[in-house]
Amino acid sequence: MKLLLDTCVWNGVQAELVAAGYDVVWTGNWLEDPGDEEILAIAGERKSDFDNA
Hints:
Elements: E1 2-5, H1 11-19, E2 23-26, H2 36-45
Parallel strand pairs: 1-2
C-alpha cells in the first residue's frame, strides 16, 4: 500500500509506517511544500498510486 502524507504529519509517522511495510511519500521530504491544493491535485492525478486513508 502506498500512502501520501501531508507535510503537517509528523515525520515519525512516516518512519513507523515504513517499518510496518508501507510505501510512504511524505511531502515534508519535497524541496518545498506546494500547499494543500497542489498536494490534493497531485494525489488526484496519481490516485491509482495512492490508497486513501
